[in-house]
Design goal:
Layout lengths: L3 H12 L12 H8 L3 H11 L9 H19 L4 H19 L5 H11 L19 H14 L4 H9 L33 H8 L4 H17 L4 H12 L3 H42 L3
């Protein structure tokens, strides 16, 4: 981008009959390399030439890359020569620098375009036109393209370069309180509405301390009892009198007896629970 002193020199060059566009945007070797690439490769190469490092987060870099890529690809499809491609890219950069660095209005930038396109189509080697290598038809096509690309969206480009934008960082912090795990005899969170006696009887499991104490008491009672000789002889006589048929019948009767006792116990507890729920429901239905 030009310094103030360079602007004065450029004005002097114009009045002296020299070129308006005094800066080469891309070298001829870069233009040659771009002309041999497809659209995606052109965009990647321009990204490297322009040293854009923050395309994923910078709106300005993304817009500028699209501006130059679209312009080059349009000129390539117009079958411009390498010299014409180079001059067209110089023109794109020249007009954009007028907007970004010199804060030129749309009208002033259009005047600069007219001065740069002066004497287009002239073949005289001493002519002062910057883009005299374009024919009249090509010059009209260039102006039409600039009208629909840069000049039509001039206010947006002014906003891009000259309007400060606040970087808004949106975040949301949520504090989530987790329920504490169940610690018997206190029930878990969703079971607090159950009466304690029902919860203790049907839901909660004995704690490790209770289980250990019962087991130790049973072991102590077993260890404290000394075997009685009479009892041992009685057990031997009882086993000797049991036949194979008695053992088979006992194998069927004992499980049936255990299952019957369990069913009776479960039915009794279910009846108690049903009675408790019925009582609570009647209390809720009855008016206060």
């Amino acid at each position: 981008m030009g310094e103030p002193g360079q602007e004065e020199d450029q004005d002097q060059d114009v009045t002296g009959g020299k070129k308006v566009i005094s800066r080469t945007f891309l070298s001829l070797s870069q233009i040659t390399a771009l002309s041999e690439q497809n659209e995606e490769e052109v965009q990647k190469s321009l990204e490297e030439f322009l040293n854009f490092k923050h395309l994923n987060t910078s709106l300005k870099e993304a817009i500028l890359l699209d501006y130059y890529t679209a312009g080059f690809w349009w000129a390539k499809e117009m079958d411009f020569s390498l010299i014409q491609l180079s001059g067209f890219m110089d023109l794109l950069n020249f007009l954009l620098e007028n907007l970004s660095d010199k804060h030129m209005s749309l009208g002033d930038n259009l005047k600069e375009l007219g001065r740069a396109m002066a004497e287009t189509g002239e073949t005289d080697a001493e002519s002062s036109g910057d883009l005299n290598f374009f024919s009249i038809e090509q010059a009209k096509a260039v102006i039409d393209y600039l009208n629909i690309s840069l000049f039509k969206h001039y206010k947006l480009y002014e906003y891009l370069f000259h309007s400060p934008r606040e970087e808004l960082v949106t975040s949301n912090e949520s504090a989530i309180e987790l329920a504490e795990p169940a610690d018997p005899p206190f029930p878990a969170l969703l079971e607090e509405g159950i009466p304690l006696d029902i919860y203790s009887s049907f839901i909660t499991s004995p704690t490790a301390t209770e289980t250990g104490s019962k087991g130790s008491d049973q072991e102590e009672s077993d260890q404290g009892e000394e075997p009685c000789p009479e009892a041992e002889s009685f057990e031997v006589d009882a086993v000797a009198g049991v036949t194979a048929e008695d053992q088979k019948s006992a194998e069927y009767e004992i499980p049936n007896e255990i299952i019957g006792n369990l069913e009776a116990d479960i039915n009794e507890k279910l009846q108690m629970q049903e009675a408790a729920y019925t009582s609570n429901t009647e209390k809720l239905k009855s008016p206060e």
